[in-house]
Amino acid sequence: MGRAHSNAWRQAPRFFDLHADVRMKTICGRDRRYVRAAAKKLGWETSAIDWRDVIADPEIDIIDICTPNDSHAEIAIAAAQSGKAVLCEKPLARDVSEAVQMVAAVKRAHVPNMVCHNYRRVPAIALAREMIERGELGDRIYHFRARYAQDWIADSNFPVVWRLQSRVAGSGALGDLGAHIVDLARFIVGEITEVSAVTDTFVKRRRGARVDVDDAASVIGRFSNGAMLNLEATRFAHGRKNQLSFEINGSRGSLVFDLEKMNRLRFYSADDPQRTRGFREIIATEASHPYIARWWPPGHLLGYEHTFVHTVADFVSAIVARKRIRPDFADGLRNQRVLDAIQRSAKTERWIQVQR
Ligand SMILES: NC(=O)c1ccc[n+]([C@@H]2O[C@H](COP(=O)([O-])OP(=O)(O)OC[C@H]3O[C@@H](n4cnc5c(N)ncnc54)[C@H](O)[C@@H]3O)[C@@H](O)[C@H]2O)c1
Fold this sequence. Notes:
Bound molecules: nicotinamide-adenine-dinucleotide
CATH architecture of the largest domain: 2-Layer Sandwich
Order of helices and strands: HEHEHEHEHEHEHHEEEEEEEEEHHE
């Protein structure tokens, strides 16, 4: 993520009118030699090996946290206490109690705060939300069904890395991949009120070391507006490298998205003339589509990295305009409460209400 975010900080002021002078001051890592090389390559003025030095620097206004999950809370709270704006990678925290403390810290300090759920800023996904807000799927949403699937640990010889240790990651596929589709569910449809889930750890030991996070999670649930929820997050779907897909069914139509074809949105409208009714493919690259006017002419496609550019551009614009930006830490906490309910449901084999 360090590279994805560095690219975003570099590109955002070149494509968006930010009304701010963005300077890429300091990149922080753990190894002096490597972080120096990273600063040079990625375009940062200086480098540091202790994040406390970055927070103590009076020239720095924004702290962007791209470290593993176990340091999000400590860094974000310290940054807020120093009056800095904070952009934090997802999942916001390892658990609800850390997220509660992070929300309290940014509220107390009145600092701008945002969670990097970059998929909200895929133009086709932002368009899907606009279409639902405008009632283009009808006045009721019946289903939100999403899947986020990868396969990088499907090989049981793959070693235990930080993402497979609950002490560092909090949870497994759930907090890593599930957090993104929970965020999209909340962004597109609304609040999730209750869940029933199963999780599993298919490979419990790797090269002798214990895996103590979930490998996959399947969830059904309900939204406060009456819609039904289906989610699946897995790292055990051979051939699925980074497949984030969803289908939404409303009273007058349906929408389908697949990140592997991320410039496209498939739309079925029950209001189309019957003879020619069917799924149509919208290529979300028109100037009238979210974010696109800043980029290329219609049909000149965008990619993964643009979602981070949009995140950074919106964050800086909100700071300048002194406006709330979403998803903020309060959204991150809400997301964490859903993840917590999913974990508790899987453990107790019961339906769990999401804490408000
Ligand atoms: N938005 C997304 O789609 C997305 C994608 C991947 C990862 N992430 C999130 O981004 C975060 C980082 O993931 P990653 O894949 O880049 O991990 P990574 O392991 O590849 O990189 C983590 C980096 O943090 C550095 N680091 C660790 N502890 C540090 C410390 N105390 N001080 C300074 N630097 C430290 C490491 O040196 C390393 O460079 C995680 O929270 C992850 O969930 C989000």
